[in-house]
Design a protein that fits this description.
The complex is a heterodimer of chains A (about 425) and B (about 150). Chain A has three domains: about 200 residues, NADH-ubiquinone oxidoreductase 51kDa subunit (Rossmann fold, 3-Layer(aba) Sandwich); about 90 residues, Ubiquitin-like (UB roll), CATH 3.10.20; about 100 residues, de novo design (two linked rop proteins) (Up-down Bundle), CATH 1.20.1440.230. Chain A is built from 18 helices and ten strands. Chain A has a four-stranded parallel β-sheet with strand order 3-2-1-4, sandwiched between helices. Chain A has a four-stranded mixed β-sheet with strand order 8-7-10-9, with helices on one face. In chain A, helix 2 runs parallel beside helix 6. Chain B has two domains: about 55 residues, Arc Repressor Mutant, subunit A; about 80 residues, Glutaredoxin, CATH 3.40.30. The two termini of chain B are about 25 Å apart. In chain B, a hairpin with a 2-residue loop joins strand 3 and strand 4. The chains are: A alpha/beta (about 425), B alpha+beta (about 150). Chains A and B meet through strand 3, strand 7, strand 10, helix 13 and helix 18 of A and helix 2, helix 5, helix 6 and strand 2 of B. Bound molecules: flavin mononucleotide and iron/sulfur cluster. Iron/sulfur cluster (SF4) binds next to helix 14 and helix 16 of chain A.
Chain lengths: ~425, ~150
């Protein structure tokens, strides 16, 4: 894979220890960055137009430029790296931490120099045990080699809560509270961790920073689909596809190319029915849009999102009602409960979808479900509820015939042949949420 | 080192000790296997927080156990990416072999089985976390050997 930059050098074997990372030029960019004035590093990031890989695609250099300079604030400046990676279908940050942990550490140190911070937290999801071990030993090794200088890097383990990936929930959690989002403004860049200026970026974003310096910002800005979707992306290909995996590719290749040429297409002579695009938080893609390029603008024009780089393939055995139901259960469980539309709406959607699946719904329930979605979107503190509403609404709208067939048939028309049949949501967690009507 | 000392050592690494509540709860759970009322009180004591506060935080997260669990845990991903490629059959195979439902522990106290949300290993389905370490590409046929292995550890 000649395109690999973020995973560069680790295509065959992981670069877990310092010596192997040094052998591919590791930490050279840190030295280069430390020789520049901090503002210059931010200017390079702006020039590269690197954008956030955590889901929202916000320009990284601009975000860093919002952080006030240390002489203007009486508080320390913090960096928190988001390694919570819990969006269903996302498994790229894990790959980074296992294969190029030192590149992530180097990125943290360059970012720390750029915004003049001396304290970096890496918030890693609690389920990642091996990933934690590998990353912690990279941090220890870099520390022992004197690379950290005045900077402290603390790897903080979460404890199982999807919402803690949302940046303000992450801050609450890191401060020792329940992981519930906070209202913005104030934005974390001004009042983040311990009410101090805080830069929050995804693992892949931070790990791309040394890459930007290495290839040069102007050159980086030419890779992929400039001007908006520059550089490469770690796509997470999964589901009904012959060769699933994390593929680092420039932005702008088509969805079809990724699935068919790189991923080997849908196996077993089946056909593609839908793609969970960007993550479970976004509208599903239908086959007629497979030639859409994988960059933010091309996807955006068709109503899709690049999200965290998820491309999960659903073949024709998939019952879309079961799919929407299982995704809905996930959001129901993960809603933090703070806002009524999200807390109640996610439950209603599950109940409605279950009624459709059982064949006990009526035609008017489809519009009711869409209405519930409408009443969630844009009406909550964070976008967790919106996420549920967006994917569910896309299933109801784009697969309405299939939803309808459940009513005609008095139950699931797939019988027990859907690939998702019997899919089991965490029982002990969900039993308490679902209200029987 | 006592649990309280260990917790306080971790807490000193943070600008504010309250930030150490998740690592502290994790340490307590590693020590006792689950978080009893006494364990929660111990965490509170070490961090100068009330037990009620510690419980309110702990109960927000999925990785803490508030009742005893088995000597081993088996957690099967049942979100859609693994589900599309047969996670249900893997879970059912564990259920059959262990004769328990997800969320339950075997009568001999050996094994707790759970269905969980996406574990972030979607390219090698089905992902099963065994004592918190991921096994990749688990199939229903692998289940008896996994259980055999666990019972001998
Ligand atoms: C419910 C929810 C979950 C999220 N989970 C993650 C996550 O696991 N990892 C992540 O990097 N960003 C996640 N985000 C996005 C973050 O809020 C934030 O935008 C991101 O970490 C910023 O980093 P970036 O600019 O480098 O992308 C989530 C957002 C929401 C609303
Ligand atoms: S939208 Fe949902 S998850 Fe987000 S803050 Fe409100 S209740 Fe919590």
């Amino acid at each position: 894979m000649s395109e690999a930059l973020v995973l560069g050098g680790a295509e065959e074997t992981p670069l877990r220890d310092l010596a192997s990372y040094r052998a591919v030029g590791g930490y050279a960019q840190l030295l280069k960055a430390r020789a520049m004035p901090p503002q210059e590093v931010i200017a390079l990031l702006i020039e590269s137009n690197l954008r956030g890989r955590g889901g929202a695609f916000f320009p990284t250099g601009r975000k860093a430029s919002f952080i006030p300079s240390p002489e203007k604030v009486a508080k320390p400046i913090y960096i928190t790296v988001n390694a919570d990676e819990s969006e269903p279908g996302t498994f790229k940050d894990r790959e980074i931490m296992l294969r190029v942990p030192h590149r992530l550490v180097e990125g943290c140190l360059i970012a720390a120099h750029a915004i003049q911070s001396n304290f970096v937290f890496i918030y890693i999801r609690g389920e990642y045990s091996t990933e934690y071990d590998v990353l912690q030993s990279a941090v220890d090794e870099a520390n022992a080699a004197g690379l950290l200088g005045a900077v402290k890097i603390l790897v903080h383990r979460g404890a199982g809560a999807y919402i803690c990936g949302e940046e303000t929930a992450l801050l609450s959690s890191l401060e020792g509270e329940r992981g519930q989002p906070r209202s913005k403004p104030p934005f974390p860049a001004i009042e983040g961790l311990y009410a101090a200026p805080t830069l929050i970026n995804n693992v892949e974003t931070i790990t791309t920073i040394p890459v930007v310096l290495e290839v040069g910002p102007a050159e980086y800005a030419q890779i992929g689909a400039p001007p908006d979707s520059t550089g490469t992306r770690l796509f997470c290909l999964s589901g009904n596809v012959a060769r699933p995996g994390v593929y680092e590719l420039p932005h702008g290749l088509t969805t079809r190319h990724l699935i068919e040429d790189i991923g080997g297409g849908v196996p077993d002579g089946r056909s593609l029915k839908a793609v969970m695009m960007g993550g479970s938080s976004f509208p599903v893609m239908t086959p007629d849009d497979l030639d859409t390029k994988l960059d933010a603008n091309s996807l955006g024009q068709k109503g899709y999102f690049i999200g965290s780089g998820v491309v999960c393939v659903l073949d024709d055995r998939t019952c879309m009602v079961q799919f929407a139901l299982r995704v809905g259960q996930f959001y129901m469980h993960e809603s933090c409960g703070k806002c009524t539309p999200c807390r109640v709406g996610t439950r209603w959607l599950v109940q409605m979808l279950r009624a459709v699946e059982n064949g006990t719904a009526s035609e008017s329930d489809f519009d009711l479900a869409l209405d519930v979605c409408d009443r969630i979107i844009g009406k909550c503190l964070c976008v967790l509820g919106d996420s549920d509403a967006m994917i569910v609404a896309s299933c109801v709208t784009k697969f309405r015939d299939e939803f309808h067939a459940h009513l005609e048939h008095g139950g699931c028309p797939f019988g027990h042949d859907s690939s998702l049949d019997g899919l089991f949501a965490p029982s002990d967690q969900h039993a308490a949420h679902e209200v029987v009507v | 080192m006592s649990l309280a000392d260990e917790i306080q050592k971790v807490a000193r690494r943070y600008p504010e000790s309250k930030s150490a509540i998740l690592p502290a709860l994790r340490l307590a759970q590693e020590e006792y296997g689950w978080l009893s009322r006494e364990a929660i009180e111990e965490v509170g004591e070490a961090l100068d927080l009330t037990p009620a506060y510690c419980m309110s935080v702990a109960s927000f997260y999925d990785l803490f156990n508030f009742e005893p669990i088995g000597r081993h845990t088996i957690e099967v991903c049942t979100n859609v990416c693994c589900g599309l490629v047969n996670a249900q059959a893997v879970l059912e195979s564990f259920e059959r072999e262990l004769d328990i439902a997800p969320g339950e522990t075997t009568a001999d106290g050996e094994i707790t089985l759970r269905a969980v949300e996406c574990l972030g290993g979607c390219s090698t389905p089905t992902i099963v976390a065994i004592d918190q370490r991921y096994r990749q590409s688990v199939t229903p046929e692998d289940v008896p050997a996994i259980l055999e292995e666990l019972r001998n550890v």
